[in-house]
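Researcher: Please translate sequence to structure tokens.
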Amino acid sequence: KPAELIAKFIDSKLKSGNKDQKEEELDITLNKVMILFRYVQGKDVFEAFYKKAIPNRSLMGKSASIDSEKSMLSKLKQECGSQFTFKLEGMFKDIDISKSLMTSYREAQIEEQAIDLSVNILTTGYWPTYKPDKSII
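Model: Translation complete:
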């Protein structure tokens, strides 16, 4: 339970709705959270909840700052090692590649034939999987 609460707290701090904190204040808060994180037993539980929160923030444009996201990732890597953060780093690489490809696409478009399009290229092994929605519309 503590691991889940820490992951949800970090998620709330990294969301774009949390504009009341400056980058420096956010970094101080995340450093304090990492001190607490060191004593948590279920780091795998934390990873599962944190990994499911990243798509909501990054793919839906709800992240306060990509720099803050990467800063948190480096803190986790320092604390738990690169094996722990491998998939999380892959998620952010996918986001960076997608942004780069979309920028290239927009630059290559002809004005008259421009299509408003937003695409994210995601590597299957990095992102959490969800059960397919079987509802019929």
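Researcher: Any highlights?
Model: The mean pLDDT is 85.
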